[in-house]
From TrEMBL:
Start and end residues of each 4Fe-4S ferredoxin-type domain: 306-335, 336-363
Free-text function comment from the UniProt entry: Ferredoxins are iron-sulfur proteins that transfer electrons in a wide variety of metabolic reactions.
MF terms in GO: 4 iron, 4 sulfur cluster binding; metal ion binding
Keyword hit for Coiled coil: no
Cofactor(s) this protein cannot do without: [4Fe-4S] cluster
Name of this chain's protein: Ferredoxin
Stretches that traverse the bilayer: none
Lineage: Bacteria, Bacillati, Bacillota, Clostridia, Eubacteriales
Keywords recorded for this protein, A-Z: 4Fe-4S, Iron, Iron-sulfur, Metal-binding
The organism's place on the tree of life at top rank: Bacteria
């Protein structure tokens, strides 16, 4: 895998950095040929300005798209945000706010509004034997994965592997969260998605990442690097070592399955320094699931899971959280009210809130056992 310093989103600097990465990996022409239709899959979890560090920066998407065009292929930008933004109107807003529509206009390429689905089989290792995936993404001749490096309140980290969960259309994500509630099976599902989609390249936006309660409510964190690899599992494993975030289930699953290759770091002699990220403040503790039998682990883990809390001053009553909740655990009064017995701890409400009005709080048992993390 390759890494290079990149301190800003100035187009010249980004394009030079992407050029260095691709040269170190042997070039993009190895996998991208003239006439191919190439899906560019950024992280567009919601419609936010690029300065918020929630989504992949459009400067990186544009630099990669230009390289694909130069090879005679046709790139297009595609993602399916969670919650209610996965219809045509929602997608239009997301593409505009994240800067993707402007990139597409400048380069004369498409942003995809195609929400058609296709059922894709997964192996027996997956907790789900088949999943619905965006048809336009699955049928592309090649996929280039363009994640953003961020910590994550529910999974601990989101990067290369987690970004392809965005291949699942809109509210299907919430459905699968409901059906796969435990950490290890969810890690297996993410790994299986990557094996089914097989991106030919991942280029990670690490100029400015996000730390704390990501993927949407954390704080921007200058990181100063772009990373690229043919293997998303190896890229994530190395990225985690740089930001000093540990105990990530999808990485644990990938290692156990032998999917993390030997690290051959292509840095051309650049000095690469770790940049520790502050983890999510209430990351769910997983030693219970890893070290107790299932009949004990499930109820204890449920009692320890962090729960969403709604800020009366920030909430605008948009109801996006209600529409995004796979467990139907919210009802609306002045602010959303949580049914703790129904809540599965997926934190979709926190992830999709456009006003950052959802905090993640420890339960009483968690505070008693581990102390307050605030």
């Amino acid at each position: 895998m390759a890494i290079t310093a990149c301190r800003s989103y100035e187009p010249g600097e980004i394009e030079a950095a992407v050029g260095r990465l691709l040269e170190r990996l042997g070039g993009l022409a190895v996998t991208i040929r003239p006439g191919m239709r190439v899906a560019l899959k950024p992280n567009l979890v919601m419609g936010k300005d690029p300065a918020a560090a929630v989504t992949t920066h459009p400067a990186l998407v544009e630099a990669v798209a230009k390289t694909v065009i130069a090879l005679g292929a046709t790139p297009f930008i595609v993602d399916s945000p969670g919650g209610p933004s996965a219809n045509a109107a929602g997608l239009r807003m997301v593409y505009k706010k994240t800067g993707m529509a402007a990139v597409a206009e400048r380069l004369g390429i498409e942003v995809s509004y195609d929400t058609a689905e296709v059922e894709v089989p997964l192996t027996e290792r997956s907790p789900l034997r088949k999943v619905s995936i965006l048809k336009v993404l699955y049928e592309a001749d090649a996929i280039i994965n363009l994640p953003k490096i961020k910590t994550h309140a529910q999974t601990g980290y989101t990067g290369a592997v987690k970004n392809l969960y965005g291949a699942i259309p809109g509210m299907r994500k919430a459905e699968y969260h409901f059906r796969v509630q435990e950490r290890k099976p969810f890690g297996e599902l993410l790994v299986e998605l990557n094996l089914a989609l097989r991106p030919v390249l991942t280029v990670m936006d690490g100029v400015i990442g996000m730390e704390g309660d990501g993927p949407t409510a954390g704080e921007p964190k200058p990181f100063g690097y772009l990373l690229a690899a043919r293997c998303p599992f190896t890229l994530d494993h190395y990225a985690l070592s740089l930001i000093a975030v540990k105990d990530i289930e999808m990485d644990r699953v990938a290692q156990a399955r032998g999917l993390v290759g030997p690290l051959l770091l292509l840095d051309d002699g650049e000095t690469i320094e770790p940049v520790p990220f502050r983890p999510a403040s209430h990351r769910r503790v997983n030693f219970v699931e890893n070290h107790l039998p299932p009949f004990l682990a499930r109820p204890i883990s449920r009692s320890l899971r962090p729960l969403p809390a709604f800020d009366r001053d920030k909430c605008i009553g948009c109801r996006i959280c209600l529409q995004s909740c796979p467990a139907d655990a919210l009802r609306m009064e002045r602010i959303p009210q949580l049914d703790k017995d129904k809540c599965i701890g997926c934190l979709c409400c926190q992830e999709m809130c456009p006003e950052r009005a959802v905090e993640v709080r420890q339960t009483g048992l968690s505070r008693l056992l581990f102390g307050s993390r605030r």
